[in-house]
Amino acid sequence: MLRIIAIICALVLSGVTRAGAEDITIAAASDLNFAFKELIAEYEKSTDTHVKLSLGSSGNFYAQIQNGAPFDLYFSADIGYPRKLEEAGLTVPGSLYRYAVGRIVLWAGTASRLDVSKGFDILRDPSIRKIAIANPKHAPYGRAAVAAMESFKVYESVKDKLILGENISQAAQFIESGACEIGVIALSLAVAPAMSGKGVYWDVPIEAYPPLEQGAVILKQSKNPEAARRFLEFLQGSQGQDIMRRYGFMLPE
């Protein structure tokens, strides 16, 4: 009987603790996959806030938010999307924040014999049948990949080999699995501990594509705008900035 009472008390106390906790839901671009998982883990250690993370393409999230998707925070790989939401009156005034500038890299699996140090010229290698990038229709990193290929004048000769991932993480998975020999992915994925031993990369010169200015915003429909604001402040703080820097992001001044 005493054991049953103890279990009931534990469940009740757990429920009280959980009820006192705050939840926020974040919609984040897939290039933030590994950086944000580490960031959230550190944030939850020091707060009573539970963070739910949804990863996907910035464009798809933009469309979902316009249709009322229940997110508190939106982290886009293209600051243009949150700006449009701000113009439409769908954000908390003054919350728009340019949190990082992203980078792209040419990436191939470690089992590949391709020399990525040759840069985009390697894409003309006849042994390459499939090249992975994110879908440029709704993924900013996909648009950057196309722009860089055009800058290096290889796009027209390789465009029929392109395999489009739903987002930049899926493009990386295509290469990692061997479905594609090579591709263009986010630097933040290439340097992540979970990925660094699985491939080699070449930094695409930043002047070869439009700046990947990434923006965040608190959504007007947020149920916990104060909790969302505190998470944004944590990202802006020294610990959050250190994490973002380690994943290859260029940070705003």
UniProtKB/TrEMBL annotation:
<protein>
    <submittedName>
        <fullName>Molybdate ABC transporter, periplasmic binding protein</fullName>
    </submittedName>
</protein>
<dbReference type="InterPro" id="IPR050682">
    <property type="entry name" value="ModA/WtpA"/>
</dbReference>
<keyword id="KW-0500">Molybdenum</keyword>
<dbReference type="Pfam" id="PF13531">
    <property type="entry name" value="SBP_bac_11"/>
</dbReference>
<dbReference type="InterPro" id="IPR044084">
    <property type="entry name" value="AvModA-like_subst-bd"/>
</dbReference>
<comment type="subunit">
    <text>The complex is composed of two ATP-binding proteins (ModC), two transmembrane proteins (ModB) and a solute-binding protein (ModA).</text>
</comment>
<dbReference type="GO" id="GO:1901359">
    <property type="term" value="F:tungstate binding"/>
</dbReference>
<dbReference type="GO" id="GO:0015689">
    <property type="term" value="P:molybdate ion transport"/>
</dbReference>
<dbReference type="InterPro" id="IPR005950">
    <property type="entry name" value="ModA"/>
</dbReference>
<comment type="similarity">
    <text>Belongs to the bacterial solute-binding protein ModA family.</text>
</comment>
<dbReference type="GO" id="GO:0030973">
    <property type="term" value="F:molybdate ion binding"/>
</dbReference>
<dbReference type="GO" id="GO:0046872">
    <property type="term" value="F:metal ion binding"/>
</dbReference>
<keyword id="KW-0732">Signal</keyword>
<keyword id="KW-0479">Metal-binding</keyword>
<feature type="signal peptide">
    <location>
        <begin position="1"/>
        <end position="21"/>
    </location>
</feature>
<feature type="binding site">
    <location>
        <position position="168"/>
    </location>
    <ligand>
        <name>molybdate</name>
    </ligand>
</feature>
<feature type="binding site">
    <location>
        <position position="58"/>
    </location>
    <ligand>
        <name>molybdate</name>
    </ligand>
</feature>
